[in-house]
User: Fold these one by one.
Assistant:
Number 1:
Amino acid sequence: MVQNEIDIIMLDTHQHESEVDGGKTMFTNEILSTCEKACADDLSELEEVYGFKFPNEMKLFYLQYNGGNLKRREVCLQKEDWKSSTSFHKFYTVKGEFENILKEVYFEDWWIKWLIPFGHDDGGEHFCFSTRDCDYGSIYYFVSECIDDENPENALVKVGGNLIEFINNMK
């Protein structure tokens, strides 16, 4: 990734910063237990191998934190006929965990190809971001026990319009 691309990403994210917490930070939920920052080349390599693009705020998150967990962890889950919650456990690190999870699920027949897993709950269910044009960057919770061969999207619960909303709305 060249410097101009990083500058553009930073510019785009600063627009989000001014909308959240008076421009002080993107996140109002404390990020804990972070790892050594990822480098842009590591992110670009994943994008190239798996054929997707990280949303801007996801790139910035990994360039700054590269994994970790959150102080407030409760994620509200809601569909038409039920409501529940789960605890967000951690974000995958770029080198190792993120790559290993992609290798594990991405090429499976049952996996929804427009979803990229970036973290999991205490039970091991994945949190993913969308790469579809219609909701690019939206965050979904993937409930593996609800996989339906005829409609695999029944296993999804949308939990945020983007990473910033997802992290900040946790209880």
Number 2:
Amino acid sequence: MLEKAEKLLDCCEIKQAIYNCAKQLAKQINPSKQYTVIVLMNGAFKFAADLLSNIALQQFNFEIHFVKTTRKQDANKFILETDFELLQQICKNKDVIVIDDVYDSGTTILTLNKQLKDITKSLLFVVLLAKTKPVIDNILVAQYVETNKWLFGYGMDYENKYRHLNSIYAI
């Protein structure tokens, strides 16, 4: 299957994009604040680890939570499935950074933005890849990609496989 896929980003391009994104994020972090970092599972775990390790952690106080999210198609639209009650408990009255793998249709980010923006002190989204320009301002994008294909590798799966790859592919 891998031989049919197009390599979009190799490991060096990914590392550079994450490094640049970490620099942008570091500029927005207030060292006197305690942050709540939400990592959306499963695809964002590798990105989150590399992103956070690129920030001077002595200047960044945070607690981290891993939250499972699933995007399901219902009729002509996508619906986000997650434990919104738990998310709201974790994020209420806190400075929150949500880390995700891909901004595609915007379903995940836009739904979470709507659910969390009024209950948090501050809310920022950070995504590894964006296929389209996000329609919200409180988002950092490590890398834009021009494709409508399925992305996998670097933590993202294709049929529950290939998360371990160090490059990002499209099929």
